[in-house]
Amino acid sequence: MNFKNVTLSAVEGLNLEYLILKKPSIPKGTRDFNPEEVSRRNYIFNTIKETFSLYGFQPIETPSFENSETLMGKYGEEGDRLIFKILNSGDYISKVDEKLYSEKDSNKITPKISEKALRYDLTVPFARYVVQHQNEITFPFKRYQIQPVWRADRPQKGRFREFFQCDADVVGSTSLWQEVEFVQLYDAVFSKLGLKGVSIKINNRKILSGIAETIGAEDKLIDFTVALDKLDKIGEEGVKKEMREKGISEVALQKLQPLFSFKGSNEEKIGSLKEMLHTSEMGMKGIAELQFISDAIEKLGLGASSLQIDVTLARGLNYYTGAILEVSAPEKVNMGSIGGGGRYDDLTGIFGLNDMSGMGISFGLDRIYLVLEELNLFPETVSENSKVLFINFGDKEALYAMKTIKKLRNLGIKAELYPDSAKMGKQMGYADKRNIPFTILAGEKEIDAQKYTLKNMKTGEQRELGFSELEEALKTL
Fold first, then answer.
1. 394 and 314: one domain?
2. Are residue 320 and residue 409 in the same domain, yes or no?
3. Among 183, 148, 410, 400, CA closest to 308
4. What residues does 462 pair with on adjacent strands?
5. Distance (Å, rounded) from C-alpha 107 to C-alpha 100?
6. Domain for residue 20, yes or no?
7. Which of 380, 207, 374 is nearest to 278 (CA)?
8. Nearest partner of 172 among 345, 357, 416, judged by Cα
């Protein structure tokens, strides 16, 4: 049916929604990336991958979806709610009896109709991988993984339902040299990206436990640290107010007072911690670990980053057992954390393999992208555009161009032919919109002379060159 000529009477009785052309869309919390964005993201990916490899990490990949039993129950009640479930194939509803169906309880029905789910993060699949392949793995096992994950979260600025995680972990070693290496690895990546002024903050779970013990709040460790972690957001009085609401006494808050003005060099902070926690065996152990890492980094040195002890840092407290790391963007960029990680003592225990200590970090790809963009740090050469476009004058000229294009591609020079013999202005406009830096005009005159007219799209300069001269020019310009 030709909808342009349809009259109102001709569509009477038809469902009008079939006649309305609905603009296509994508699910909320997902994104399309244009060629420039993909090139820039790949630039970050490749920089991180190259550094992971340089430090001896090996790549693995796990399936985009896992058995539900692998994921469910590993992230707490809130995490379980955010896991995307996959419906079973076939007549999945037939396994639900009438009584269960009538109850309309999704928590009871879901296991009957869904046996698989999209991965929520890379950590639990990695734990499953280590347990499943433990007899094939050489420990300590250094792995990196860069893959997408999915969360049924409420989309908002900086938070998506589909996004990439860039993780590196070492399992099977308790050595503190792993922490030292991860600090260096962070610094190496940000140095390669040209991102200076990055702050790598470090703390230790044992120190936080020691502080809670010293002030008499061992039973309120989580409440204490969750509030302390908000110091830079709600200030000293805000933290104290939240602690009081959680039942932490005024006496404990008085003992905690030195932490609110905890300043100085890393060495000075360690000295203050020793004075404060000298009665706590756990706290002193954490201080010793922190001092080892700090002293090693002091001797080895960093490039684009600085290592700063931050005793208020408490990310992932339920998960981490030793060192805790968080990476902050340069102060002139209001971005917050662009990476983080820490030491964990029992990653694989959730699958029955106990006492497998490890250390891991993650890069916040999307936030790193925004920081590089705001600071104009993406190199101009990051674009994957062709370097040269051959203008199409017709089939004879196109064949001459294609023979040359084949030679250039064999030399690693990105080249292409405009597919149609359209007007010159249209072809030049195409090269301009694509940001292709050079065009080549090869008409009858050039073919007879076995030459090429190379045009610089930025300056407008034109030169007639032989093939060897053209090759040299495209390699050097």
1. no
2. no
3. 183
4. 455
5. 11
6. no
7. 207
8. 357
pLDDT in tens, 100-131: 878 788 888 888 899 999 999 999 999 999 99
Q: Give the residue from 328, 346, 368 where a domain finishes.
A: 328
Which residue range(s) make up the domain with 309? 196-328
Calculate what percentage of the chain has a pLDDT beyond 90: 70
Query: Do 323 and 205 fall within a single domain?
Result: yes
Compute the distance between CA of residue 224 and CA of residue 216 in angstroms, rounded to an integer. Answer: 11
Residue at 380 is within a domain: no
Mean pLDDT of the chain: 91
Domains in the chain, number: 2
- CA 285 vs CA 254, 280, 315, 448, 473: distances in Å: 24, 9, 19, 82, 63
201 and 324 within one domain: yes
Burial class (CB in 10 A: 0-12, 13-18, 19+), 311: buried
Contacts of 332 (CB under 8 A, 6+ apart): 197, 375
Paired with 166 in beta bridges are: 146, 363
For CA atoms 310, 312, 315, 317, the dihedral sign is positive
Residues β-bridged to residue 164: 148
Q: Are 86 and 118 in contact (CB under 8 A)?
A: yes
Q: Are residues 323 and 389 located together in one domain of the fold?
A: no
pLDDT, tens digit (0-9, with 9 covering 90-100), for 215-242: 988 888 888 888 888 887 888 889 889 8
In this prediction the pTM is 0.88
Structural tokens at position 421 = 């013999």
Give SS3 for 340. Answer: strand
Nearest of 396, 242, 198, 233 to residue 312 by alpha carbon = 233
Which DSSP letter does residue 125 get? H
Is residue 389 situated within a structural domain?
yes
Q: 305 with 186: CB under 8 angstroms? A: yes
CATH number of the domain within which 417 lies: 3.40.50.800
Domain finish residue from 304, 328, 352: 328
Q: Are 472 and 408 in contact (CB under 8 A)?
A: no
Q: Is residue 395 part of a domain?
A: yes
Collapsing DSSP to helix, strand or coil, 305 comes out as strand
Return the residue matching tokens 């101009």: 380
